[in-house]
Amino acid sequence: MPDYDHLSASIRALTHGEVDTVALMATLVCEIHHNHPFCDWTGFYRVVAPDLLKIGPYQGGHGCLVIPFSRGVCGAAARLGQVLNVPYVDAFADHIACSSSTRSELVLPVWNGAGTLLGVLDLDSNTPAAFTAADEDWLVPLLAEVFHDSV
Predict the structure, then answer these.
(1) Which residues have C-beta within 8 Å of that of residue 6, sequence separation ≥ 6?
(2) What average pLDDT score do residues 17-26 get?
(3) Cα–Cα dist 125/132, whole Å
């Protein structure tokens, strides 16, 4: 389990005063990917058109380039505006296998303070049931804080 307090402090220090969405995404991805023991692919999918996500900053192997809101875990999280923690991706009926090694996934919608959906944060693991409620409880308020003034 990551040291959430230390990691949050690091992310706050690195992103303080920044409002550029891509810069914020790149910084968070790097910090989370290198500090969460179960993240094998960590990245953002950005909202680029109505009901359409495109890959943003990420760490790990290649990801899917385009994901419609109507497909996969990332699309469902964006469409529903809900956190989706999928312990076994093979059991998710509409899972998109960007990587055949992925076994579990945590996807969190990301909004700015004006309520605009900016995209989703996607954490993939080659370990089944890798992500916990503690991960969700840590990331939801941190994402709201970091992206509050994002443009």
Answers:
(1) none
(2) 98
(3) 12
